[in-house]
Structure formats: C-alpha cells, structure tokens
Prior knowledge:
Blueprint: H1 4-11, E1 30-36, E2 39-44, H2 53-67, E3 73-77, H3 90-99, E4 101-102, H4 106-113, E5 133-137, E6 145-150, E7 156-160
Parallel strand pairs: 2-3, 4-7
Antiparallel strand pairs: 1-2, 5-6, 6-7
Bound molecules: zinc ion.
Amino acid sequence: MKAIAELWKLLEEIPDPEIPVISVIELGIIRALRYEGHSLVITITPTYSGCPAMLAISMDIHNLLKENGVTDFKIETVYTPAWTTDWMSLEAKEKLRKYGIAPPNEQVKHKLNSLTGDHDEEVNCPHCGASNTSLTSQFGSTACKSLYKCNECLEPFDYFKCI
Ligand SMILES: [Zn+2]
C-alpha cells in the first residue's frame, strides 16, 4: 500500500484535460484520498456540471494508478459541497493567466449575478493586463469559459467563469 502523501504527489501529474498547465489537484477536483481497509478511495468533485472533462479525468486517475501498481481503488464522486472556483489555488490562477486565460475574478461573479449584465470592464486581459475588455460570447472554447476581446492589444482571450 502506498502512503497517502505519495499518492497525492502521483496524482499531481494529472493535468486538467482542457488546461494542461494546471493539475487536477490545483484545480481542486480531487478532494480527498483515504483507505477503507486495503482499498483506496479517491473523492472527486466535478467542476462545471456537464463538463465532459470529468470523464477524461476519471480515466486518467484510473490509468495512472494502475500504471503505478495500485489496483484496489474506487473513485467516489461527491457533489456537495459543490465545486467553486475558490477551490482553485492562487498558483493555479496565476498559471491560467500566463496560459492566456483570464482567471476567475470574484468581482465579476457578483456583477454577473446581478441583473444588470454590466460586467465587461471587470475582466483584465491576461496578455497586457488592460481592464478595457469586452465580452464577445458567453461561451468560449468550452462551457466553462466566456470569450472576451481586449480593446487595448486586440487579442481575444478566454475568461474562466466563476461559480
Ligand atoms: Zn490586452
């Protein structure tokens, strides 16, 4: 049986299928690891509901554990408490920005939740840092992201939505 700490390290190798610079642990998807007798239980919480990435992540966990000789395990999916972008580490948000995706911004979340729909100016461009950006589409490359355009450097970019 591998130590829990060793398993955390191992699982850190699994990238998010959509954002390869961030691991599923940094994203906060893997919530807990524990042994029930000799059986390893991995608790995961899906990010955006219906995100097809979750299937890929489960497969990756399966394959990685098997490759490392861990055969007695199960993956348990827990929906409460629901995943929020707050679970994403600060390092992960910084990696997102460097990757060209504007990280989730709490201020935008509050604006989006209001009925005004006036939230464009809150998202900073991940390329040049300008706050002069505008929403192009509610849905970017995936449902988890919105598509923005920077009015300063004119680069389009994805904004990772808050939930
Ligand atoms: Zn820009």
